[in-house]
Specification:
four-stranded antiparallel sheet, single chain, 33% helix, globular, alpha/beta, 273 residues, Rossmann fold
Length: 273
């Protein structure tokens, strides 16, 4: 793990899958670690597309993404894999044990004689993720929630300076959502790393995020800042189309949802965008 925290910068980034499907529109965004950054917003606003541009899974059709001041296109895949870890939305798994699956995260560092060190790191992460008792189970035999925790463990085993996660708590029950989010925030600070995750739970985001990136249709950044700067009744109304009441709970905003705003009122609110 490096000494100085990394920076991620989007400069006028646009992305489209074809001429008729523009997903991101002129994104300007600068993120500095260490800490937990949560990307929130309704379905379809380009959250996954945004984070996939960080590790070159997708290449912007316009603009640039820089990591530590250097365009990601200039990094070799090997160097990029040591800097950025990526945990996708939980999907199909691997026909191997949990231990071997998490060990895949050590691939960028594998060298002759490194297995003992790699195994020590993997066992430590399995314990942290409460997966030690499942280490010899076949990954494909586990539940969806366990799959997700193993995927996160594999990302952590990579020991990246930036860890990017696409909805890492989507298949977890509320207890494990809180546990994993708390863990990711703690590791961001203790390991001096930047953790960027997509979240759909506004209150968990408000409670644990160091910084929030709120996106809105059509593929734009609406607001960036600390939880109390981003999570407001006005932003919830504009971005999600829901009325709410926000209270302060131990210094963090807590959202109590009220009712969905009718479509015609939303069109008026957005100026018939």
């Amino acid at each position: 793990m490096c000494g100085d925290p990394m920076e991620v910068e989007f400069e006028d980034v646009s992305f489209g899958y074809d001429d008729d499907t523009q997903v991101l529109h002129g994104i300007d965004l600068r993120l500095e670690g260490p800490g937990l950054v949560c990307v929130i917003g309704p379905n379809g606003v380009g959250k996954s597309t945004l984070i996939k541009c960080i590790n070159r899974l997708l290449r912007p059709t316009h603009g640039s993404v820089k990591v530590d001041g250097r365009d990601v296109s200039e990094y070799s895949l090997s160097d990029l894999s040591r800097i950025i870890g990526y945990v996708p939305v939980s999907g199909e798994g691997f026909a191997m044990t949990v231990l071997d699956t998490v060990l895949l995260g050590r691939h960028p560092y594998r060298r002759i004689g490194s297995l003992k060190e790699d195994m020590k790191i993997v066992h430590g992460i399995l314990d942290i993720m409460n997966l030690g008792h499942l280490s010899m189970r076949n990954f494909n035999e586990l539940s969806a929630g366990q799959h997700q925790r193993v995927a996160i463990a594999m990302g952590l085993a990579q020991e990246p300076e930036i860890l990017v996660l696409d909805e890492p708590t989507s298949n977890l029950d509320i207890r494990h959502q809180i546990y994993v989010t708390e863990l990711l925030k703690a590791m961001a600070h203790t390991k001096n790393m930047m953790v960027i995750m997509i979240s759909h739970d506004i209150n968990i985001t408000a409670r644990y995020a160091d910084e929030i990136v709120m996106m809105t249709t059509p593929g734009r950044i609406y607001r960036v800042g600390k939880p109390h700067e981003v999570i407001t009744e006005d932003t919830i109304r504009y971005v999600y189309g829901v009325e709410s009441t926000i209270t302060d709970v131990n210094g963090h905003p807590n959202v109590v949802l009220d009712y969905a705003i009718p479509d015609e009122e939303m069109r008026s609110l957005h100026g018939d965008m």
